[in-house]
Amino acid sequence: MENPPLIQALKTYGSLFNVSDFLTLPDNTPYGNLNLTYSQIVIRLECLNELIKNLYEDFNRHREQVKARGGWSHLHEGFKHKFYIEQVLYWLRKTADEFISIIYILDQYKQTGNYPNEIKISSIGKLLNSKEDITKLFVKHRKLLVLLNDISNAHKHTLINAQVHNHVGKDEPVVFALSAFNKSTTTPTFHSVGLRAMLEAYDNFLIDIKEILMTEYQLKQETINN
């Protein structure tokens, strides 16, 4: 069985979160101590990896059960995997939104010497619709962000998305979504993408986010002195 695609850009899965995984962010901003925000993100991703690991293990176990039964599955079994996948997508979206907010705060301080009174770019959607220079930092990952934004919005807001609940990945967990902005006159957009591909792209996104924080805003990664 192929290993599950874990998010390990900020910390190796299963390792203790220590000083070597840390970036030193501003600790006295109008939006609180950003070190706490970063720490929460790293710990969240460890918990998310547990969910991903359990999802893949359960998916593979269920696939073998379906083969043994002769090809049929209980309705709740397939839905359980879709429910787990929606949770994974939610936390990926939330984490991306928080990093976008952090970078906006740091960028405003870099440009003006003051923290902004408002985080005007605080989510993927606002970033994609913005024309500010900060968007250039995310160009490389625009395709991923558009996909993550569309799918997570379909999961959260689109009633018609329930019509794809009978779609289940055959060989791997697959992200399905149907979005139409809750308008009967809108032609729905159907999304189907392997979860592994999305998670691998997301891990690369986080690698670049960390590089942006260290190079654009001169944040330092702590080291352990022997």
Q: Can you offer a commentary on this structure?
A:
The chain is mainly alpha-helical. The chain has a domain at 19-134 and 197-215. The protein is built from 5 helices and 2 strands. A two-stranded antiparallel ribbon has the order 1-2. Helix 1 runs antiparallel to helix 2, helix 2 packs across helix 4 and helix 2 packs parallel to helix 5. 27% of the residues are buried.
In short:
With 226 residues, the chain is mainly alpha-helical. The chain has helices at residues 34-69, 75-112, 124-128, 142-157, 195-215, and strands at residues 174-179, 189-194.
Return the average pLDDT rounded to an integer. Answer: 90
- The level of helicity is 40-55%
The biggest beta sheet is recorded as: 2 strands, antiparallel
Task: Give the DSSP E fraction (strand runs of 2 or more residues).
Answer: 5-15%
Shape: globular
Using only CA atoms, what is the Rg?
A: 19 Å
Low-confidence stretches: none
The helix-strand sequence is HHHHEEH
The main sheet orders its strands as 1-2
Span between termini: 38 Å
Please count the helical segments: 5
Write the SSE topology:
Elements: H1 34-69, H2 75-112, H3 124-128, H4 142-157, E1 174-179, E2 189-194, H5 195-215
Antiparallel strand pairs: 1-2
Helix pairs in contact: 1-2, 2-4, 2-5
Keywords:
globular; 5% strand; mainly alpha; single chain; two-stranded antiparallel sheet; 226 residues
